[in-house]
Automatic annotation (TrEMBL):
This is Alpha/beta hydrolase. The keyword Isomerase does not apply. Residues 33-261 form the AB hydrolase-1 domain. InterPro entries: AB_hydrolase_1 (IPR000073), AB_hydrolase_fold (IPR029058), AB_hydrolase_sf (IPR050266). GO terms for cellular component: membrane. Keywords: Hydrolase. It comes from the Bacteria. GO terms for molecular function: hydrolase activity. It comes from Nocardiopsis gilva YIM 90087.
Length: 281
């Protein structure tokens, strides 16, 4: 069964890829990918990517606590706790080293997971949910209150509107709206507050800058906002790091442009990650 029973929650996950045998490439540093979805979503957001990636890599795709087919705990729906969940899951799957790929809130989660550098060889962040300046950050307390209020689901749907552009396929907008309608309001509110208004939140820019300056692994970052891309580039100190900006995309650029996303991702993995040996980290 594709479920893992953790101390306080049950996680759904899938594992795809080449069969593993002793000494096989699937156990190599660069050959296990962990795909982490965003806020109010689930691992289905990677369905356009898993088949191609699984032809070469071992691909682990979980539903985070409170999302998708995973269980909901009374507390702990925070990026840091979700990262702890994934550490346990990876240990049980004997995934000693991974390339951690995260979208939006998943970008925060893989960042926290990377605090264990022996586990995370490299990161790919897809419009990660951090680095927001005062113009946006000043609105976070109000949004957090609305999400925790009696019309929290409506607030979540309204908030999600910024993720799309007129060019975003309607099916993507509808798909994610339905996910938010089904998500427990407590989960959405608690996760948002943990990302953006809690004392240890890394969503606002000053905390995000400190977080990124301590990152030692190579990172491929996708952004659709030119200002955020320009802000992040000098903060990623590893020579293998790269920031890609697609200004005509929305927040879910990996879903809007899956073929282009896979092309950039797999080339970077081949050129950068496979050259990183454990002693270099």
């Amino acid at each position: 069964m594709p479920f893992a029973d953790l101390p306080d929650v049950r996680l759904f996950y899938t594992v795809d890829g080449p069969r593993e045998t002793p000494g096989d490439a699937a156990r190599d540093t660069a050959n296990t990918l962990l795909l982490v979805h965003g806020w109010g979503s689930d691992s289905h957001e990677w369905v356009q990517h898993i088949p191609q990636l699984a032809a070469t890599y071992r691909v682990i795709a979980p539903d985070l606590r409170g999302h998708g087919y995973s269980g909901t705990a009374r507390t702990g729906t925070t990026p840091r706790t979700m990262a702890d969940d994934l550490r346990i899951l990876l240990e049980r799957l004997r995934a000693d080293r991974v390339v951690a790929i995260g979208h939006s809130m998943g970008g925060q989660i893989v960042g926290h997971l990377a605090d264990t550098p022996d586990l995370v060889t490299a990161l790919v962040t897809v419009d990660p949910a951090y680095g927001f300046g005062p113009q946006l950050a000043d609105s976070f307390p109000r949004i957090a209150r609305e999400l925790a209020g009696p019309r929290g689901t409506e607030a979540a749907i309204a908030l999600d509107a910024w993720t799309s552009t007129p060019a975003t396929p309607r099916w993507i907008r509808a798909w994610h709206a339905r996910r938010l309608l089904a998500a427990p309001q407590q989960v959405l509110a608690e996760a948002f507050a943990a990302m953006f208004t809690a004392p240890d939140a890394i969503g606002p820019r000053p905390a995000a800058e400190d977080h990124l300056r301590h990152r030692s692994q190579p990172t491929l970052c996708f952004r659709f906002d030119r200002d955020l891309a320009a802000w992040e580039r000098p903060l990623l100190s590893h020579p293998g790091s790269r920031v890609v900006c697609w200004p005509d995309s929305g927040h879910r650029l990996h879903e809007e442009h899956p073929e282009e996303f896979l092309l950039v991702l797999t080339r970077w993995l081949d050129e950068t990650v496979r050259t990183v040996q454990p002693e270099e980290r």
